[in-house]
Amino acid sequence: MSTRAVALALVGVVTTGFGVTALAVEEAPPGGISVTKDLTAVIALHGLPCGNVVSATQQGQDDYVASCENGNRYRVFVGADGRVIVEKID
Predict the structure, then answer these.
(1) Strand pairing partners for 75?
(2) Confidence band (pLDDT; 50, 70, 90) for 7?
(3) 7: which residues sit within 8 A by CB, 6+ positions away?
(4) Which end of the chain has the smaller Cβ count within 10 Å, N or C?
(5) Cα dist. 83→11, 51, 86, 90 in Å?
């Protein structure tokens, strides 16, 4: 899938208007997909091991830390050039 599609997926994540910083897997906006499911898709599209995102913490606009069911943690954010970046956190 293209970088543009990944960027659009992340834009969908960050434009949901959540005031909550930590989200559980079950929580979803009315009529939408949960942030954790969007982050799961973005991480998978980058080809990184995760399984499912079990929790996500919003660090800022377009910036999340995702914790995966396999124990991996990733920072998912939009860079200055508008591209989605996924960095593994040790």
Answers:
(1) 65, 87
(2) low
(3) 78, 82, 83, 84
(4) C
(5) 10, 23, 10, 22
Region class of 82: left (phi > 0), else alpha (psi between -120 and 50), else beta: left
Q: Which residue has the tokens 């599609």?
A: 5
CA gap 77, 63 in Å, rounded: 4
Closest CA to 45 of 90, 13, 2, 81: 2
pLDDT tens string 9-46: 665 555 444 434 344 434 555 555 689 999 999 999 99
Q: Which two tokens stand for residue 57?
A: 């913490």
**By percentage, how much of the chain surpasses pLDDT 70?**
63
